[in-house]
Amino acid sequence: MSQEAAANYYSKDFEWNHLRLEIETNPSFLYHLLPFIDDTNASTSASTADANSDSEAWNKFHTRHSTGKFFKERRYLLKEFPELASCRDYAKVLEVGCGNGSTALPILRAKENIVVYACDCSNEALDRAKENIAAANLISAEHRYHPFLCDISTSGFPEWLACSSCQERFCKSNCNRVDFCEVSCSEESSCCIGGVDLVTLIFTLSALPLRMMPTAIQECFSVLKPGGMLLFRDYGLYDMTMLRFDPKQRVGYREYRRSDGTRSYFFSLESTRDLFSSAGFTELELEYCCVKSTNRRNGKLMRRVWVHGKFQRPKGS
């Protein structure tokens, strides 16, 4: 595939507004558009129970899909997010929801001295990721890849990513030096790694309940250095996978639960913008990626919709 063809494949194979008109005028898809009435009491204890259930569902998912056949390296990342290859030497990347390592691997390939901290709510996912990255035989990968268990929708990030003192400095500083917090920590008590330069949220946020997303995004904001970027890619509104869910699988407005217990939310540009701006991020890029592909088994055309975004933490925030 040529560079031009690759660009077309991952961006604008069709117009999202044409798809929207087709879906919203089709009576068979009406139930996707209706308001959702939740009869349950969304208490804190219920939210925690949901999160525990989600983590267990993803553990079982990665146990079932532990073979190499399921692993597909996301090679498009460097084209969609060139910042991963052009960042400063020894830049720190936090990958939220690392899954089986399909995102971490191309990031580690992008730059020989980039450092990746990767978290997931599933121990099984972390094990698969470590296996896949070890099998790739990358230069000093064992020193540049640091996985850890974390469910940001319930517990938040550990203090060693960015301690409270450093987070306060982030808010007060208008300094342009990218190593500002790292220097402060190393000179004082080495209390943390000084925050991260880049955060990736690649097909992760959609797996959380909608009500927990603001907390998760705020957590990402809190460990990102001033001027740092968050790179986002996730399921877009009217993606073909959304249209395959039946009415009984709806658990919220644009929220669905699969038969295996995992969940998925489908973002519009407006809902994405609201979530990130409310957390304090500045929007740099936000668009639908509309991709046509063909199912190799049955020859059917698939219309995929993803939301692509880049958001920045302002200096002095």
UniProtKB/TrEMBL annotation:
<dbReference type="GO" id="GO:0008173">
    <property type="term" value="F:RNA methyltransferase activity"/>
</dbReference>
<keyword id="KW-0489">Methyltransferase</keyword>
<dbReference type="Pfam" id="PF13489">
    <property type="entry name" value="Methyltransf_23"/>
</dbReference>
<dbReference type="GO" id="GO:0008757">
    <property type="term" value="F:S-adenosylmethionine-dependent methyltransferase activity"/>
</dbReference>
<dbReference type="InterPro" id="IPR026113">
    <property type="entry name" value="METTL2/6/8-like"/>
</dbReference>
<keyword id="KW-0808">Transferase</keyword>
<comment type="function">
    <text>S-adenosyl-L-methionine-dependent methyltransferase.</text>
</comment>
<dbReference type="GO" id="GO:0032259">
    <property type="term" value="P:methylation"/>
</dbReference>
<comment type="similarity">
    <text>Belongs to the methyltransferase superfamily. METL family.</text>
</comment>
<protein>
    <recommendedName>
        <fullName>tRNA N(3)-methylcytidine methyltransferase</fullName>
        <ecNumber>2.1.1.-</ecNumber>
    </recommendedName>
</protein>
<dbReference type="InterPro" id="IPR029063">
    <property type="entry name" value="SAM-dependent_MTases_sf"/>
</dbReference>
